[in-house]
TrEMBL record:
Pfam families: DsrE, TusA. Residues 3-69 form the UPF0033 domain. This is Sulfurtransferase-like selenium metabolism protein YedF. InterPro entries: DsrEFH-like, Se_metab_YedF, Sulphur_relay_DsrE/F-like, TusA-like, TusA-like_sf. It comes from the Bacteria. Coiled coil: none annotated. Gene3D superfamilies: DsrEFH-like, TusA-like domain.
Amino acid sequence: MMKKIDATGQACPLPVIQAKRALETEKSLSIIVDNEIATQNLKKFASQKNVTYRCIKQAANRYEVFLSKESEVEVSDKLLDKKQETQTSDIVKTMVFDSLTMGSGSEELGKKLMSGFIASLLEQSVLPKYLVFYNEGVKLLVGELAHSFDELKAKGVTLFACGACTEQYQVTEKITSAEIVNMFFITELLLKSDTVINI
């Protein structure tokens, strides 16, 4: 029986994450979403994973998306993921967080984007080696996303937070997932990293 998922009311990228998780064990599924952007995100996901995609608009705010994969495609996709992981495992990637939001402009949108980014990061097979937090970014470690950073730590990612910043925002004692370090340490870490990504 085809697996069915109701993702109505869920913000991006949650429908895609649910689809990805389901296809790890299922050959096909249908997922209900309530906006066209979600259908386009699922279509892009299907294209990236070599999964067949079909969408039926059932009402103004109701779309049913069908995703399915063939066994040979699944095997090929897993081999590709394994090859990419092998090729990139020795590259030191560091992500830097200096704000509660992602990008500039609307603060509300920026917080949603940050939440979506962290949720998506947790689903990746290849993760950065380090996460660095400074300025207002240290507040992420004690906010609504704190549990997600605990999960990343459990997956082997090492987190560092600027001590001067945690003191400034009075969150030092509340941080459990990151090691408190100074700016000299952060400077050396960034210079030694092969890739630094500022979020």
